[in-house]
Specification:
This protein is mostly helical and 131 residues long. The chain is 79% helix and 0% strand. It has four helices and no strands. α2 packs antiparallel against α3 and α3 runs antiparallel to α4. The longest helix is centred in the last third of the chain and has 33 residues.
Length: 131
């Protein structure tokens, strides 16, 4: 065992026990994300949009693209929130690198939202505007 392994007991777990603990940590992350307004709004929108993807999609690939774009927005939002939490953990004073990290996380969310919006607009256009 390496000296660093004793710091994190998760590293010593194997098999189903490791999977069970990892699932618990993931659920804790979703719960923490729920406390963020942006993630909560995106999650609530996904309750409508993911089922709508099955109605709007014309085949499994289009359905997966529609639903996946919605899930991608939530994934990027969680990663952005994680970056912000780490930056805040390091220090609350203003620093150019901290601002850059937070701005880039925000830009990633914006790009994910634009991608999802473009996919949904294209699918809606194909569904109702073509003859």
């Amino acid at each position: 065992m390496k000296p660093t392994d004793s710091i994190n007991p998760q590293k010593a777990r194997t098999g189903w026990k490791r999977w069970a603990y990892a699932t618990t940590y993931s659920l804790a992350g979703l719960k923490a994300g729920w406390n963020e307004t942006a993630f909560r709004q995106e999650a609530l929108a996904s309750i409508v949009l993911v089922p709508a993807a099955f109605w709007l999609g014309r085949g499994w690939a289009e359905t997966a693209l529609l639903a996946g774009s919605v899930i991608l927005v939530m994934v990027v939002e969680l990663l952005n929130t994680a970056v912000e939490a780490v930056v805040d953990r390091v220090g609350s004073e203003w620093h150019d690198l901290s601002k850059r990290a937070k701005d880039m996380g925000s830009a990633a969310v914006l790009l994910a939202l634009l991608l999802a919006g473009g996919i949904w607009i294209a699918a809606l256009y194909a569904r109702w505007m073509t003859f």
